Amino acid sequence: MRAIPLALLILLALLLAPLGLSRYATEILTQGFILALFASAFNLVFHALGLLSFGHAAFFGAGAYTAALLAARAGWPYLATLPLAVLASATLALVLGFFSVRTSRIYFTMLTLAFAQLVWAVVHKWYGFTGGDNGITGLEVGVLADPRWLYYLALSLLGVGLGLLWLVERAPLGYALRATRDNEARAEAIGLSPFWLRLTGFVLSGAIAGAAGFLQAAWQRSAFPDFLYWTKSAEAIIAAILGGSGHLLGPGLGALAFIELGAFVQARTEYWPMVLGLVLLFLVLFLPRGLAGLLGGRGARG
Amino acid sequence: MNLDLGFLLQQFLTGLATASTLFLLAVGLSLIFGALGIVNFAHGSFYMLGAYLLYWAVRGNPEGLWWGLVEVAAIGLTLGALVERALLRPVYPRPEHHQILLTYALLLVIEDGVKLLFGAAYKSLGPPQALAHPVWIAGAPFPAYYLVQILLAALVAVLLWLFLKRTRMGLWIRAITQDRAMLEALGVPVPRLLTAVFALGIALAALGGGVTLPMQTVSPGAAVEAVINAFIVVVVGGLGSIWGSLLGAFLIGEIQAFGVMLWPEFSIAFVYLLMAGVLLIRPWGLLGRPPALRT
Lengths: 302, 295
What we know:
Radius of gyration of chain A: 19 Å
Oligomer: heterodimer
Number of helices of chain B: 11
Structural class of chain A: mainly alpha
Number of strands of chain B: 2
Structural class of chain B: mainly alpha
Largest sheet of chain B: 2 strands, antiparallel
Shape of chain A: globular
Strand content of chain A: under 5%
Number of domains of chain B: 1
Largest interface: A-B, 44 and 40 residues
Helix content of chain B: over 70%
Order of helices and strands of chain A: HHHHHHHHHHHHHH
Helix content of chain A: over 70%
Strand order of the largest sheet of chain B: 1-2
Distance between the termini of chain B: 51 Å
Order of helices and strands of chain B: HHHHEEHHHHHHH
Shape of chain B: globular
């Protein structure tokens, strides 16, 4: 159990970090935690359900917009919107998941993509309610306007999210999900219900993604339709695959690397997407074993 | 609302013009998925690149359009072949998400590459002099260029159909979507065939992008939108089916044209609704084959 002292040391460092870091560095780290939470949520569906969702931006965006709308239009204190933001995302995941989890493989990917883009199209154009492509800006986020408070909230929510995912992995639910993923017919034969299991996993994943969206709106003090666009879903996918979808902490580490590398490159050149693209190309082409290793030692999952 | 025949015809033709570029954009994605089994997230990037290549090829002179389109298609063909050989071939045996990651990486590189080469500003080019005026159809004006665009897409559809139906390579391409192992056993040079299919698909996408430039501006951001449109078309029509792409493009084009009349804000939403609906009711698309019959 040499891992425990190391984990405590890292936790201590994370807790003390904002005291020593600049405002900018704290904010970047916070952004890393937010993407880490989002990517970990995505990974529940990707790894445990074995389904590649291209629609998680919808749940991320639902959390962000619920919080932003309640704070900006109904005058709620920002922090108080968290439960409803999570609930809204979970509800959206329930509705979209009800239809999506019946399908599999490329059809699941395309259906989640279609649903998320549908939500995006509505948010993008509904000027009267969501502000359309102007988004909702200038949010009053109370104490979260202090980067340190936001940092600790993001870290705590990431901790809670990872804790939940860890519990799911260990719980009968996790075993049942993986059994369904690996052999649906057998899972059904021993009395499991693949549909309800997948829907449960999908809703849980959507709810956690919603919490990440809530944090993102606080971080930017705004909510924009971009939060719901398909490229946002792609960020979670990249982070999860690069960090390693087979490990509980993999997607989070991938997300932190993604954000930190992004901040580093963006401080030097405006061509960050080019750099990211080349890094991805290199990793996929030349380090397949490295990638598989990063993927969690269980090798490639089909 | 003005609902006379001329106006409806005008909307219908506008829808057809949209459909014609959607078809050129999407049919290659469909062919590539059918033959290579790869979901090409960079497909819209080659479409966007096609528009920039045309802009570069004609050097600001709209009269150079036709020769420029030939150049764009030729560059697309070459580029497609190179990308398939160098980047895609190594990832065929890998899991799906590696392939998606690779084509997504390509999307990022092309988007920024275009920014690097042409700048981030919108680029535009007018239609050639002979087509720069409206034609009057049933008393309503309609851009002459759109008619040419529609005819061009129809010509490509017919040529593609003849190619797939009447040539040996076309036969192989149709066969490879059914049973690749059998094709290999029969001595067909499958790797070269895959290169050809990808190159063809990319050339069509680039051509589609080039064709739109005289009527639409282009910017590096056009790629992420285009690839989603291509997905909608092939999902609605059926992955791997050419007639499906044609039908999908037609439906999406017309829904956009008439959706704008009925409910301008949410005409894009209708399109996604159709995509989701088709996936729920006929996941393999309107003209696609159910997977059970494919094996």
